Amino acid sequence: MKPLKDILVIDDEPMVTRAVQKICGSEGMTVCAAGLASEALQNLEDSKFRLMLCDIMMPELNGFQFLEELSKRGIHTPVVMMTGYSTVENAVRSLTATGAVDYIPKPFTADELLTIIQRNLRCSELLDKAESAALPRNGSMTFVPCPSDYYKLGYVSWARLDNTGTAIIGVSDLFLKAAEGITGFELSCQGEDLLQGVPCAEATAPDGSVHSIMCPLSGRILEVNALAQSTPSLVEKDPYFRGWLYQILPSNPASDLQWLSL
């Protein structure tokens, strides 16, 4: 049986891999580093990992090709993509087209890195429990999935298009459960422009960690759900209906929707 380790980080910049090793190592996590995707694949031959962090722009195999290779080999370890702000569109693509679970923009702080790693480790556990649970028999659910007619950006956020040409956007129950509860939201203001894949809100968890919520659709905010800000528990109890965050006027829905899943 392969030994189980916590994190495999893949990046051709040694400064990035050293930073991940130092930050995660200080929290007691076991971390292996690879400078190339081919080296990472060899690591996966020798060990199992709970989570992988992978850069998008790399020599030889890039991040997208690495994800495709994982799929071919039947490796289902969750992957968080790392990307510069100038390539956010690529990161958004990775969530739908190639199956990454999340992404983190570079450069990142130690707190940002730990927050996204811990949230995605919990997300992976929730998904595993949901897959293995005999739900029809025991009636329990680890999280409530998005309604089938909602567009989703990874497991983070959702959008519902209205026949008036506007859209409602919010945060998924899986994201909220993986964050282990929310004590407050910091929301943008009416009239501000939102950009797909860029944080549109921040959620603070009981442990003080701050979780960025990526926007599923670009557009201008028409209305902010004041109840979501004043009563965060409403979002946790009813994230897909009364707990929405914004009503927006989408700026480029045809382009944005191709990177979202139903």
Structure description:
- The protein is an alpha/beta fold and 262 residues long.
- Helices cover 35% and strands 27% of the residues.
- It is built from 10 helices and 14 strands.
- It has helices at residues 14-25, 37-46, 63-73, 88-97, 110-132, 135-138, 173-178, 226-230, 232-237, 253-257; strands spanning 4-10, 31-34, 48-55, 79-84, 102-106, 151-153, 157-161, 167-171, 184-187, 193-194, 199-204, 210-214, 219-224, 246-250.
- The strands form 3 sheets. Strands 6-7-8-14-13-10 form a 6-stranded antiparallel beta sheet. Strands 2-1-3-4-5 form a 5-stranded parallel beta sheet, sandwiched between helices. The chain has a 3-stranded antiparallel beta sheet with strand order 9-11-12.
- A hairpin with a 3-residue loop joins strand 6 (151-153) and strand 7 (157-161).
- The longest helix has 23 residues, at 110-132.
- The N and C termini lie far apart (37 Å).
- Residues 134-139 have low confidence and may be disordered.
Question: Brief overview, please?
Answer:
The protein is an alpha/beta fold and 262 residues long.
Task: Spell out the key features of this protein.
27% strand, 14 strands, five-stranded parallel β-sheet, 10 helices, alpha/beta, 262 residues
Straight-line distance between termini: 37 Å
- Quaternary form: single chain
Low-confidence spans: 134-139
Tell me how many strands there are: 14
* Binned strand content: 25-35%
SSE order, one letter for each helix or strand: EHEHEHEHEHHEEEHEEEEEHHEH
Supply the number of helical segments: 10
Percent of residues in helices: 25-40%
Widest beta sheet: strand line-up: 6-7-8-14-13-10
Structural class: alpha/beta
Shape: globular
For the biggest sheet, the summary is: 6 strands, antiparallel
- CA radius of gyration is 18 Å
Report the average pLDDT across residues. 89
